[in-house]
Write a structure and sequence with these properties.
The complex is a heterodimer of chains A (149) and B (464). With 149 residues, chain A is an alpha/beta fold. Chain A is 42% helix and 23% strand. Chain A has a single domain, classed as Mannitol-specific EII, Chain A (3-Layer(aba) Sandwich), CATH 3.40.930. The chains are: A alpha/beta (149), B alpha/beta (464).
């Protein structure tokens, strides 16, 4: 399984304008509903918000990785949004975020390949040059290039 | 150079675990510190830290938001922080870890040894299951034995008068002793297979009692039932909607049936064959050397205490009373008294070889011993059969031999020391008492010699 299988091109929203964490989640979830990854957006959103309550997924450096494991998800999925205006995410470093990766995981998951891919993504996010590329990408193609590296 | 270790873990185990690990890896690389980071994520444990690495490490950073087993780091420098802390300031954590004072390696080695010992005690699953059964059996043996002994207060024959208090005491005590083997088997099985093991274990123990296989048969029944129940539990797969009936219907029925059939066909058959064979053999020895007969009868009394061998010897001696031959009865009773008496002495002179529970049970064994209730030694024999039974057999054979050698004769088939006080019930009373005393001492010394230190005594030594 490749990262691109999870992060479909239709799941990428570059330079969108949202005013809150919730509306950001709604927009990203919508993209995954359209591709059939998420079948019940309400159930899925609850799982994501619950995870957010346990501790912010704003990992600092302007990046957040909200995620939810839920029966509302049909297959593993990843959506990405780059925000034109930063929003507050209760991040670990207290700074607002501009890049959001939303992760969707089905309740009953046979393999763990996608988890490994997500763990790799998490590791990549800790590298400054990777984060810079996320900020500089002008098209989703450039973004994928950065992700596949 | 100081080596560092770290473990990262977060509640979902998807993102933060790995980000923290990466942050620590990067920071370590930057600072040129030798560090290994284990991740406990939802994909399982990756890059696992070994015990050897723990032993070498200067400090361990635990960047975790979940509970993990920290016992393997006992005696080491530990920094405990939230996962977020490692993501935010990995370098700071490494500085803190390096700045910690060097812990003496002795601390860790000592702790590791201690852990190994505890593990060792746990790993002896067979012993653990056996002890569980024995520990549930002890109160039953004590209650039953003491109540039967109490009935003797009213006179040796008092219990034969129906409706008398003595007869009732005897009945209550008998009921308790009848539960002894089922409880032993039941709780051995319970220890192996949890609740589903109890029913087949109790039934298997009851069958051991019915086919006269004694407590050794009960031990077999317990292990059979336990592992059969576990087998059914682990390997019989049912559709999800039927899974609920498994613990209440499928496991009890299948495991009890299998245990029962095995007890009847595989254990029961040989046991009755052994009893028949032994009976014929004893009959054929009537003309032989009586001292040798005493040795054989004595040994038989202690081999399975209530099992087929013991019962055959006892029945043989009782049968001879009808022919007015009283020597074997005396030998059998002496040999039946020395096991609990010898155990009692052993618990007094070698406390470190017995658990606290056994030391207390030892006191009760003294009362059961003087009352000729051989069952008092069963919990000790069941807990450690290969060491205790040979000791008991040697002591009982000694008592039986001496009793015959001293030409002691006994006219009553029970009673223990209480019959010694009755005029003319025993001939050569003083020599007979001497035979019992010597047998008791032989038993006690051999038990002490053969038995190993109890786990509790070992643990106490390890902490000193």
């Amino acid at each position: 399984m490749q990262l691109s299988e999870i992060l479909q091109k239709d799941h990428v929203l570059l330079d969108i304008n949202v005013d809150s964490l919730e509306s950001c989640l709604d927009k990203l979830t919508e993209t995954m509903v359209e591709t059939g990854v998420v079948v019940d957006s309400d159930v899925y959103k609850q799982a994501v918000l619950k995870r957010e309550q346990e501790g912010s997924t704003g990992i600092g450096f302007g990046v957040a990785i909200p995620h939810g494991k839920s029966s509302g998800v049909k297959e593993p999925g990843l959506a990405f949004a780059r925000l034109s205006e930063e929003i507050d995410w209760n991040s670990l470093d207290g700074k607002p975020v501009t890049s959001v990766f939303l992760i969707a995981i089905p309740e009953e998951q046979a393999g763990n390949e996608h988890l490994q891919i997500l763990s790799q993504l998490s590791r990549k996010l800790m590298h400054e040059d990777f984060r810079n590329k996320l900020q500089e990408a002008t098209t989703s193609d450039e973004l994928f290039e950065a992700l596949e590296q | 150079m100081k080596k560092l270790l770290a473990i990262t873990a977060c509640p979902t185990g998807i993102a933060h675990t790995f980000m923290a690990a990466e942050a620590l890896d990067q920071a370590a690389k930057k600072k040129e510190v030798d560090m290994k980071v284990e991740t406990q994520g939802s994909v399982g444990t990756e890059n696992e830290i070994t015990d050897a690495e723990v032993a070498e490490a200067h400090a361990i950073i635990l960047a975790i938001d979940t509970n993990i087993d920290e016992s393997r780091f006992a005696g080491k420098n530990i920094i405990r922080v939230a996962v977020g802390e490692a993501i935010k300031d990995a370098e700071g954590l490494i500085d803190r870890a390096l700045a910690m004072e060097e812990k003496s390696s002795d601390d860790y080695v000592e702790q590791a040894e201690q852990r190994k010992k505890e593990k060792g005690a746990e790993r002896q699953g067979f012993y653990k299951h056996l002890m569980n059964g024995v520990s549930f059996m002890i109160p039953i043996v004590v209650a039953g034995g003491i109540l039967i002994a109490l009935s003797f207060i009213f006179g040796i024959e008092a219990a034969e008068e129906e409706g008398s208090l003595a007869a009732n005491l005897d009945q209550i005590g008998g009921a308790a002793l009848g539960l002894m083997v089922p409880i032993l088997a039941g709780y051995i099985a319970y220890s192996i297979a949890d609740k589903p093991g109890l029913a087949p274990g109790l039934v298997g123990g009851m069958l051991a009692e019915q086919v006269e296989a004694g407590f050794l048969g009960g031990i077999i029944a317990g292990f059979l039932a336990g592992y059969l129940a576990k087998l059914v539990k682990d390997y019989v797969k049912l559709p999800k909607n039927l899974e609920g009936i498994k613990p209440v219907l499928v496991i009890p029925v299948l495991a009890t049936l299998a245990t029962g059939l095995l007890m009847i066909y595989v254990i029961g058959g040989p046991v009755s064959a052994i009893m028949g064979g032994l009976e014929d053999w004893l009959q054929s020895m009537t003309g032989a050397n009586v001292v040798f007969l005493g040795l054989i009868l004595g040994a038989m009394m202690a081999i399975d205490m209530g099992g087929p061998v013991n019962k055959t010897a006892y029945a043989f001696a009782v049968g001879l009373l009808g022919s007015e031959i009283y020597g074997p009865m005396a030998a059998v009773m002496a040999a039946g008294m020395t096991p609990p008496l010898g155990i009692w002495i052993a618990t007094l002179i070698a406390k470190n070889k017995f658990s606290k529970e056994e030391q207390e049970a030892g006191k009760a064994a003294s009362v059961l011993g003087i009352s000729f209730i051989t069952e008092g030694a069963i919990p000790f024999a069941a807990a450690d059969p290969l060491r205790v039974i040979p000791a008991l057999v040697a002591g009982s054979a000694t008592a039986g031999t001496l009793s015959m050698l001293f030409s002691a004769e006994l006219l009553a088939p029970h009673g223990g020391v209480f019959v010694l006080a009755i005029p003319n019930a025993v001939t050569n009373v003083f020599l007979y008492a001497l035979a019992i005393a010597i047998g008791t001492i032989v038993t006690a010394l051999l038990v002490v010699l053969l038995k190993r230190k109890s786990p509790q005594a070992k643990a106490a030594e390890a902490t000193n």
